[in-house]
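Design job #97: recover the sequence.
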């Protein structure tokens, strides 16, 4: 008797769990990283020296998103 009651309770709880909608992501993924980092370089926000790799720096320069002077001012070589 107890086993049957427990099974019924378990089935009801499973049904309730399956009705939940999938959670939406909290934020959108960054599709264009060079643009993201260029905005960060041009802003007044804190920018750690190790935040931008040499490859990312080269991509931003090649696309004209930032200038060498802007990078030097922010401590990126």
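Job complete. Output follows.
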């Amino acid at each position: 008797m107890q086993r049957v009651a427990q099974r019924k309770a378990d089935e009801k709880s499973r049904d309730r769990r399956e009705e939940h909608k999938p959670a939406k992501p909290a934020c959108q993924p960054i599709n264009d990283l060079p643009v993201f980092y260029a905005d960060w370089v041009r802003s007044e926000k804190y920018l750690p020296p190790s935040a931008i790799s040499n490859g990312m720096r080269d991509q931003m320069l090649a696309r004209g998103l930032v200038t060498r002077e802007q990078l030097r001012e922010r401590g990126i070589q």
